[in-house]
Amino acid sequence: MSDSTEETLPSAAVCEAKIQFRQLKAFPVIDENNNFKIDTAHFLQSSHQIVDAIGCFGKLFSPIVKDMRQNVMKLEEKYKRNETLFANLEDLILKDDEGNDNSYDTVTDGLLWLKRALEMIELFFRKVLEDETRSEQLKPHLRKAYDECLLPYHGFLAQKGFQILHFYVPSRTSLLGASGANGDNMKALEEFLVHFRANLSHLNEFFTKYDLHRTYKA
User: Fold this and answer.
1) Percent helix, strand and coil across the chain, each rounded to 5?
2) Taking the CA of residue 201 as centre, how many other CA atoms within 13 Å lie in the half-sphere pointing to its CB?
3) Which residues, 6 or more positions from 145, have their beta carbon under 8 angstroms from its beta carbon?
4) What local confidence, expressed as pLDDT, does residue 164 receive?
5) With a cut of 50, which residues of the chain have pLDDT below it?
6) Which of 42, 43, 174, 201 has a 20 to 30 A CA-CA distance from 82?
7) Integer angstrom CA distances of residue 182 from 73, 167, 176, 196
8) Long-range contacts for 127-133 (Cβ within 8 Å, ≥24 apart)?
9) pTM
10) What is the pLDDT of residue 165?
């Protein structure tokens, strides 16, 4: 693994005050300097940190944390087999270990489900940020994010599990800090979401371009 991935912040650093967005490394920039592709090591590091952050929601969220972590690790395990060839996330998906065209496999499926979970998290935090009422109650934001990003792909049992889970979302103060004292954290969240959203939009375009979307229900 490259040095950038080894610098991943430990979970404790993220959880010290629930989530401190200034401590999280932003998702990678996608521009001409990287041939408009996603740096794999950087993306993996940022994804691990998001999983750590969701762990701060409480023990009841451990199934989500476990599922997301497993999907990150699927990508990580393949990346370690050929870090040069798989330096960009798109090549990790489209190529096998020898650089040949790669058909849809478990790694691609893992990225698909990770992308959906990340989309839910990004939308949840965006709704929290945009909530002008600054309501302590964050359950409606998670419910809306889930309905848009994951509900279409969840079967009956998964839906029921989420219905129970979303009642235990921490309050705004618990998650982000007391109103009036969390201004820097909210500003950091706003900045963090810029590249987070850009990576997800890029991945959606990538999945569409190469016909990698799947609609089966979990």
Assistant:
1) 65, 0, 30
2) 10
3) 120, 121, 123, 124, 127
4) 85
5) 1-13, 15-16
6) 201
7) 33, 24, 7, 21
8) 128/172, 128/176, 128/189, 129/186, 129/189, 129/190, 129/193
9) 0.90
10) 84
